[in-house]
Amino acid sequence: MALKVPQDIVDIQLSFVNPTQEEFYYCTKRNQLFSGGYGNGKSYGGSMKAITLLSTFPKYKIAISRYRAKDLVASTMATFFKLCPPELYNESYGGRRNDREGYTRLINGSEIEWIHLDDYSEETLRGREYNSHLGDQMEEVSEGVYITIDSRIERWDRAEIPAHLNPEHFPKNQFTGRPMPPCYNMALVNPDSFLHWGYRRFHPDSPEAAKYARTHAYFSASTHDNPAIAQSLKDEMLSRDPAWVDRFYWGKWGIAGGAIHYINPLSILSRADPGTGHTHIKQDDLAKLLDVIKRDGIRYRAMDHGEKAPTCCLWFAWLSPTALHRNYGIKSKGVHVCYREYYQPDRLISYHRQAIADLSGDETYNGSYADPDIFRKHSQKYGGRWTVADEYMDKKINAPRVNWSPADNNEMATRSAVAELLTPQVDVVHPITGESPSPQLLFIKLHAEYPHGCSRAIMETQAAKHKRIGSENGTDIYSDERDPNTDDHAYDPVRYYAVMPKSSELPERPKVIPQFSFAAHQQRRRMNTYRRIGTSFYGR
C-alpha cells in the first residue's frame, strides 16, 4: 500500500529531486537498497520515508544507523532534522530530542534510536527490537551486522494503526493478533566492489539477486540526476580521477573504497550488451582471439589452492608484438589475455586435478605456477614429509598429474606489476577495438556463449583494497597493507602471473607417435597394465 503523509499531525511537503527517489519512497518491499553517486537524494529520500512512518503510526520504533558516531551526528542526523518539523518532537506535547543519548521521541509516542555501528557487536544488536531500520552509508558495514539488524526489525509490537487507515486492512501478528504496520530494512549505500553484500543481494546484474528478488528492491541514481546540484559542482566532480567519477558521480559498482586497482573497461572483453560499459566483443572476434591464443599464444597457468576455501586456476596467454602484427595487422607492444578460469570450493585435489586437466586439453604451457605455500612440507605421508604440490603429482591419485612451480608471492612487487599491466599505455594498441592507449592485460569475461570465461578474477582484482586504519576530517585513511577480509582466491593468481618469467618463444609441442609404430605398441601395453591394476594411465 502507498504511504500517506498524516496531514492531521503536521503539514509535511513532499518534493522529490528525481524519479528514483520517489520510487524508493513508495516502495513496499521489505528490504530496500538505494545506491548511487554523491548527492543523488538517497539520504533525503530515506529521511522522508522514516519521518512518514514515524508520524503515521503511533508508537512506531525505528533505528537509524551509520558506522561512525561522528558521521551519524554531522551528516545523517543533520539531514533528518533539517526535514523533520520541530513540532513533531515538541517537548510541550510529550516529544523529546536528545542527540547526546541518541534518542528521539515524537509527540505521538514513536521513537528513534540513533546507533553508530563501529562499536556495536552482533551480540549487542541481537537484543534490540524495531519496526524498521534506516542505515546510511551501509557499504561500511559488514554483511553479518546487516543480517543481524535485519533479524531485529518487525520485532517491536507496540506500534498502532490509526483508525483512519482501517486496522483491518493490515496483516496481523500470528501470536498477539495485533495489526502490524509496514516494516522495512532500508540501506543507503555508495557503490563498492562486486563482492559487497549490497551488490550480491540487490543488484539486478548479480547472479545471487534472483533468490532475494521477492523481498528485495534495488534503486540507483547518479549525481547527474539531481537538478538541485549546481552545474559548476558537477563539472568539478567530473574532472576528478576516472575511478572516483565512476563510483561517486555515476554510481557504478565494482570499485572498492581504498581500491588498489582500477580496471579500465577496455580490459574486459564481454559478449554482453554494449551498454554494460565493457569492451563488447562480437562472437566472430572472440572466436578469432581464441584461435590466435591457440596458434600463436605463449600460454601459462596460475593457481591458488584452497582446502575449504576455493581453489582457483587461471589460464593466461602472452600475445607478442609479432603475433599481434601477424593476426591483427597492428604495431603494438604485446598484450596478456586471461582467457579461462576455474574456481571451485570444497573439493578434493583429485577433483581439481581432473578439472584442470580437462580444461587444459592438449594445450602446452611455458609455465604453471602456484601459491608457494603448497610447497611447504606440512604433513606426513608415505613415511616422510609431504606437500600439497606432491599431491598434485601423486601417481596413486586417479587423476591427471599437474606439475606446479612455486610462484613469486611478494605482495608489493606483484601488486605493482598488476597495476602496470592494467594501466593504459601509449605503445599498446587494443587488438579488438584498435584503440590506443590501451591496457596490456585483458580478461575474456564469462558469458553463456563462453562458460569458462573470467568472473571471479575480474571481481576480486577490482575488490582488492588497502586496509582502512582510521579517518581524518571525514576522509578514510588507508595503510599500504591489503585488507585481509577481502576474497583473494582469484586475485592471487593474477598477481602470480604478473611477475612470471615470460618467454618469447612458443613451447615445443609434444611429439605425435605414429599409430602403428613400435613406440605406439609399447604405449598401449603400458595403458593395459595400468588398467589391470586399477590405476589411471595419467598416473604413470
What does it look like?
The structure is a single chain. The chain is an alpha/beta fold. It is built from 16 helices and 20 strands. It has helices at 19-26, 42-56, 69-83, 122-125, 143-150, 197-202, 231-238, 242-249, 283-296, 321-328, 349-360, 388-393, 411-422, 456-463, 491-498, 518-532; strands at 31-36, 61-66, 96-98, 103-105, 111-116, 132-135, 185-188, 216-221, 268-270, 279-280, 298-304, 311-319, 335-344, 367-370, 379-381, 384-386, 405-406, 441-444, 466-472, 475-482. An eight-stranded mixed beta sheet has the order 3-4-5-2-6-7-1-8. The radius of gyration is 29 Å and the shape is elongated.
Question: How are the SSEs placed, and which strands pair?
Answer:
Elements: H1 19-26, E1 31-36, H2 42-56, E2 61-66, H3 69-83, E3 96-98, E4 103-105, E5 111-116, H4 122-125, E6 132-135, H5 143-150, E7 185-188, H6 197-202, E8 216-221, H7 231-238, H8 242-249, E9 268-270, E10 279-280, H9 283-296, E11 298-304, E12 311-319, H10 321-328, E13 335-344, H11 349-360, E14 367-370, E15 379-381, E16 384-386, H12 388-393, E17 405-406, H13 411-422, E18 441-444, H14 456-463, E19 466-472, E20 475-482, H15 491-498, H16 518-532
Helix pairs in contact: 1-2, 2-3, 13-15
